[in-house]
Amino acid sequence: MKKQWIADFSLLAVTFVWGATFVIVQNAISFLEPLSFNAIRFILAGLFLFLWLIIFHRSLFRHYTLPLARAGIWMGFWLFSGYAFQTVGLLYTTSSKAGFITGLSVVLVPLFSFLFLKQKPSVNASIGAVLAAVGLYFLTIGDGKWMLNRGDVFVFFCAISFAMHIITTGKYSARYSTMLLTMTQIFTVAVMCTIFAFLFEDETQMWNVAILQKREVWTALLITSLLATTAAFLIQTNFQKYTTATRVALIFAMEPVFAALTAYIWAKEQLTASAIIGCIGILCGMIFAELPITARKMAACKTEANSLRQTK
């Protein structure tokens, strides 16, 4: 139980970093195209982790196997899809709508877990996921100004991809080395982003010094590569083995909450009544999902007490 709480707190810290970088990324891709931005971001993150392993954990490479590589590539594929769809979607929709639609993975994870892994979520976890999804709606688009555009469609595919990434991470994280698995998935994303940037974008931007020297770009690349990529995915890969995919999805639903709070603190954006209701809804969903654990513990305690009384 202690490991589970440490895992949940660590994943919550990761969610805070992701939420805080939403606006930073959106500012950066106004200068550097999205796939090019992600290519540089993940190349930097992969190189940083590779050098760390070479210097401090070189012996780990003896455990690098073909099954581990396949698992890391599969995780990297879903991670690439999520970031690619989200970053491209941000070109055509607002960050608030993107935050809500991305957060729909909180509902998709228990559904996919049941369909692909035959893991049936508890009733309370399912209700908690729905509560969190409703909270996300009020937090981001509760003002009723909803018009579906192509950016929203891109971000919905992003939600599907992130849900699959959570499921695959939970499946493989307990089997293989955290650092090797994380490095493999990060380099997979870097390679795929680079290939697609060459196919669909002006790839010369990736080594355009004038663009890379812009404060909005290099600041975003530094923060996202080290904190939101290397550190974040090391933490997720390491700690998800101690919790469930549904709990992870509920924790990640806090991303737009943190995005709204950091925007309020740093950019002086006002939180509306609808946004506050949404934050409360997400928190209630997370708390509600925890109730089955408490109920089981109470039932176990009652059973133990009854058995003790019968033996006296």
UniProtKB/TrEMBL annotation:
Coiled-coil spans in chain: none
Keyword Iron-sulfur belongs to the record: no
Family annotation (Pfam families): EamA
Transmembrane residue ranges: 9-29, 35-56, 68-92, 98-116, 123-141, 153-172, 179-198, 218-236, 248-267, 273-293
Residues in EamA domain copies: 6-140, 150-288
Location within or outside the cell: Cell membrane
GO cellular component: plasma membrane
Family statement: Belongs to the EamA transporter family.
Name under which the protein is recorded: EamA family transporter
Lineage per the UniProt record: Bacteria, Bacillati, Bacillota, Bacilli, Bacillales
